[in-house]
Specification:
Length: 80
């Protein structure tokens, strides 16, 4: 989405959303996810992407100058 309005703001919101949600509650670091089955983890990551998108849309609605902002998001999760 290169060149999208306020793309840097959308990217920041996406990264902060994932970071905050992946490091709170019971799970503080990647190793804490070791016992979580793959399906549950994939579902959690999918929900994080949706939440990030909703946060971006909310910010764009609140600030007219951010109308049309967006970002491309790739999430990779490695555990051992």
């Amino acid at each position: 989405m290169g060149g999208a309005a306020a793309g840097e703001e959308a990217s920041r919101i996406a990264v902060e959303t994932v970071k905050q949600r992946m490091t709170n509650g019971t799970y503080k670091k990647p190793g804490d996810y070791g016992a979580m089955d793959a399906y549950t983890l994939a579902e959690k990551l999918e929900n994080l992407v949706r939440e990030a998108n909703n946060n971006i849309l909310s910010r764009a609605k609140a600030k007219p100058e951010y109308q049309g902002m967006g970002t491309t998001m790739t999430v990779a999760f490695a555990r051992h």
